[in-house]
Automatic annotation (TrEMBL):
Name of protein: Phosphoenolpyruvate-protein phosphotransferase
Catalytic activity, as annotated: L-histidyl-[protein] + phosphoenolpyruvate = N(pros)-phospho-L-histidyl-[protein] + pyruvate
Taxonomic superkingdom: Bacteria
GO cellular component, one term: cytoplasm
Organism, as annotated: Dielma fastidiosa
Full-protein residues shown: 246 to 568 of 568
Binding site for phosphoenolpyruvate: 48, 84, 206-207, 217
Amino acid sequence: EREALKVLKTAKSVTVDGHEVELAGNIGTPKDVEGVLNNGGEGVGLYRTEFLYMNSDHFPTEDEQFEAYKEVLEGMNGKKVVVRTLDIGGDKKLPYFTFPEEMNPFLGYRAIRLCLDRTDIFRTQLRALIRASVYGKLCIMFPMIATINEFRQAKAIFLEEKENLIKEGVKVADNIEVGMMVEIPASAILADNFAKEADFFSIGTNDLVQYSMAADRMSEKVSYLYQPLNPSLLRLIKLTIDGAHSNGRWAGMCGEMAGDPYAVPVLLGLGLDEFSMSATSILPARKIVNSLSKKEMEELAAKALTLDTAEEVTELVKAALNK
Ligand code: PEP
Ligand code: MG
C-alpha cells in the first residue's frame, strides 16, 4: 500500500478530466520540510510560526526568525510557502508573556487581535519574513481575521515594513502574496469583499467549525459537533471559494478537513485550489484526486449543499467513492 502510493510522489494532482489542484503540507518547524517533500508535497500551505515562539524563552528576535523562514523557503526550493503570522492565545500560551484573564480565551485576545495591539511583536515578525522573501516563493497570511479593517491594518503594517526595509537597502521579493485565513464565519460570509483586498484565502476549518457550531474544539463533551461535512459548513466554504474566484484569487484550505478522504471529493467539486494537510495525508489524497472527475464532483458538491446533515453528505461521498 505505502509502496503503491510512492509512485504518486512525482505525479500531478490532477483529476481524470484534467483539472489540476495543489496538494501541500502543514509544518510547525523548518525540520518538517523534509517530510513534506518526501511525501510529494507541492508546497507548504501552512507554516504555524507559533512554535518558534512557544519553543523559546523570549520573543524570538528578527534574526532568529529570519533564519527559520529562510531555511523553510530554501528547503522548498522555489515551491510556494504560506507562512501564517503569529497565532498565539486561545489554548496556546507563552511562558514569557502574560495574557489577560478572560472567560473565553478562544473568543478573546489572540492571533491578529494581539498582533494589531502589540505591533512591536508583529513588525518584528513581518520584517523577518520580508527579509527572507528573496529565498523562495513567500505567501504571508494573517490568522483569525474577522473584519475588513483588521485585514487593512495588518496589510498596511506589512507594506510599511516592506518600504522601511527597501529604504534600508535590503533586497526584498516583489511577488510576496498577502492573504488571510478564513476561520471565522463573518469573514466567510463577506469573502467576496475580502477578496478585493486579500491575494488569497486559506480556510482554517478547525476553527471555522468551532465558531460555526459554537463548540469548543478542546471539549470532548461536545466533540460530536465537529462536523466539517455539515452542509452549513459546506455553504460557508462555497461562499469563500466563490468569493475568491470571482475576484481572480485562489482559495486553499489548511484545516484538518483538507486531508479527510471523505471531504476531498466535495472540496474538489466546490473548486478548492489548494489542499494543505499533514505530510502523511498527501499521497493518499493524491490517489483520490487522480481517481475522480471534476465534473462529477461538481454535481456531487451541488447535491451535498442541499442535504440536511453531515451523515447524509458522508453517505453521498461514500457512494461516489465506491463507484
Ligand atoms: C484551523 O483553524 O483550521 C487552522 C489550520 O489553524 P489551527 O489549527 O492552528 O488553529
Ligand atoms: Mg485556526
